[in-house]
Amino acid sequence: MKLKKVLKIIASVLGVLLFLCACFIGISYYNYKYRYLPKNILFTQSAEYINPDEAKFSEGFKTCDEKYIIQYYNPERATYSEGKNGLRKFIMSNYENRNYIDSGYLNIRFVINCKGEAGRYIIHENDLNLKPKKFNKDLVHQLFELTTQLKKWNPNFTHDEFRDSYMYLSYRIENGNITEIIP
Question: Which domain of life is it from (predicted)?
Answer without folding.
Answer: Bacteria
